[in-house]
Design brief:
The complex is a heterodimer of chains A (108) and B (111). Chain A is mainly β and 108 residues long. Chain A contains no helices and eleven strands. In chain A, the strands form three sheets. In chain A, strands 2, 5, 6, 9, 10 and 11 form a six-stranded mixed sheet that branches. A three-stranded antiparallel sheet of chain A has the order 3-8-7, with no helix packed on it. In chain A, a hairpin with a 5-residue loop joins β9 and β10. In chain B, the strands form two sheets. In chain B, strands 2, 4, 5, 6, 9, 10 and 11 form a seven-stranded mixed sheet that branches. Classes of the chains: A mainly beta (108), B mainly beta (111). The interface between A and B is medium-sized, with 19 and 23 residues.
Chain lengths: 108, 111
């Protein structure tokens, strides 16, 4: 069955510290993977997708098919990065399967 | 710029009432989705629609129905609201590149 697992409900770091939000997936084929972010009082929005291999707001994510992971990383966290982060998986359709989310809190 | 709007930001309804949540997108997207968002559970797909008058069940369709009479509008209907349907409801439409654009959400409280 297709599943996305985000093991941490809350990740708290100090400003300037490295951040890694974990995401593991279960899927038999070649998935498309995404990270979505929801800042306080804002709508959910796409942060990045593995296929584009971009760095957005300093965040990167590498698809590791061997470990079935798609962890989100940033070398130096900023206070404005505090938000709810969701990892999501799409098969060949337009549907997304979301993880349960990780709340990132960056403390000053 | 894609815009997805939802009819209400906050809604309070009584148990047993029929509830309509409306979603409108202005980018001529064919695919639209309804999710509910609950703490610790993430987003769960209720229903989706690939085209006008077409609908498919998602993972948690029980207690819900949908209507898509026009391409830009996708409505979620709670036939008889119950307290366990208290949640944040998110609508999304999808571009050809698989990116989902979300509305601001409707926080529904059923008392």
């Amino acid at each position: 069955a297709q599943r996305v697992t985000q093991p941490e409900k809350l990740l708290s770091v100090f400003k300037g510290a490295p951040v890694e939000l974990k995401c593991n997936y279960s899927y038999s084929g070649s998935p498309e993977l995404f990270w979505y972010v929801q800042y306080s009082r804002q709508r959910l929005q796409l942060l990045l997708r593995h296929i584009s291999r971009e760095s957005i707001k300093g965040f990167t994510a590498d698809l590791n098919k061997g470990e079935t992971s798609f962890h989100l990383k940033k070398p130096f966290a900023q206070e404005e990065d505090s938000a709810m982060y969701y990892c999501a998986l799409s098969d060949s359709s337009y549907k997304l399967i979301f993880g349960s989310g990780t709340r990132l809190l960056v403390r000053p | 710029d894609v815009k997805v709007t939802q009819s209400s930001r906050y809604l309070v309804k009584r148990t047993g009432e029929k509830v309509f949540l409306e979603c409108v997108q202005d980018m001529d997207h064919e695919n639209m989705f309804w999710y509910r968002q609950d703490p610790g559970l993430g987003l769960r797909l209720i229903y989706f629609s690939y085209d006008v008058k077409m609908k498919e069940k998602g993972d948690i369709p029980e207690g819900y129905s949908v209507s898509r009479e026009k391409k830009e509008r996708f409505s979620l209907i709670l036939e008889s609201a119950s307290t366990n349907q208290t949640s944040m409801y998110l609508c999304a439409s999808v571009t050809g590149s698989y990116e989902q654009y979300f509305g601001p959400g409707t926080r529904l409280t059923v008392t």
